[in-house]
Structures are given as C-alpha cells and as structure tokens.
Design a protein that fits this description.
Blueprint: H1 2-17, H2 21-25, E1 28-35, E2 47-48, H3 49-63, E3 64-76, E4 80-91, E5 97-109, E6 112-119, H4 122-129
Parallel strand pairs: 1-6
Antiparallel strand pairs: 1-2, 3-4, 4-5, 5-6
C-alpha cells in the first residue's frame, strides 16, 4: 500500500509538471486541502476542494511560465508521504528564475491525496511530518 501512495504522489507532481490538471485531479480526494508555500502562505491560505485548488493552480501557471518539480527523495512515513526535491520556476513577465529546495507533506486517504502542505525547506517538511531527520 505504501508504494502505491508514493506512486500516487509522483503522478500528481508529474501531472503538475505537464500542466495537466485533469490527470492530477484523478489522484486528489474531492475535499483536498492544499496549503502552498508562497507569499500567500504567510496568511496561512488553504485551498479546499477541487475548484479552489484548480483556481489557485491556474493562477500559478499564469504567473510562472516554468514551474517544474524535480524529485530528490520521497519517504513513506506510514500515514503520510514526504516528497523532497527542488522547484524550478521562471516568471512569465519578469523572466526571473528560481531554483528552490522544496518539500511537500501529503496525507493520504482512500488512495488519494487528502491534504498537501508545501514548504520551502526539506527540514520544515520533515518536521511537519514528525520525522526526526
């Protein structure tokens, strides 16, 4: 079961990299909660449900003409998955590029991602998941 959850998280991120919201939706719980790591995160914005997540995703894809995840490691922690890697982004208008360490803590339910919280550091993602490393 845990390997299946790892593959589900990978498929969601692969769909993101291809900007294929429909495919990614197949792996999300209908009541998905997504807390992005962005300036909006300062306000603790959480997007709930397909429609809010799709709207926020579309806005990000319009802002950034490159927004791609590259995996370094993925960990099964039993009830959740922690994805560690980098995010590569480039502003559509500004052309400013960023290569940032990035972590995502995903809680799973019924073989779907029920909650995803993003972090701008691996340590924060691991702490969120309760991992000692």
């Amino acid at each position: 079961m845990s390997q299946e959850h790892i593959e589900i998280v990978r498929r969601v991120l692969e769909a993101w990299n291809r900007r294929d919201a429909d495919l990614g939706r197949d792996y999300l719980a209908p009541d998905i909660e997504w807390k992005p790591a962005s300036p909006a995160a300062v306000e603790d914005t959480v997007y709930r449900g397909y429609d809010e997540v799709a709207g926020a995703t579309s806005a990000l894809w319009e802002t950034w003409d490159v927004f791609r995840f590259e995996e370094y490691e993925i960990r099964d922690l039993g009830s959740s998955i922690v994805w560690l890697g980098h995010v590569h982004i480039r502003g559509s208008a500004s052309r400013i590029e960023l290569d940032q360490e990035f972590g995502i803590h995903c809680s799973m339910r019924d073989d779907k991602v029920a909650r995803a919280e993003a972090f701008l550091s691996w340590n924060e993602a691991l702490e969120s998941a309760g991992s000692d490393e």
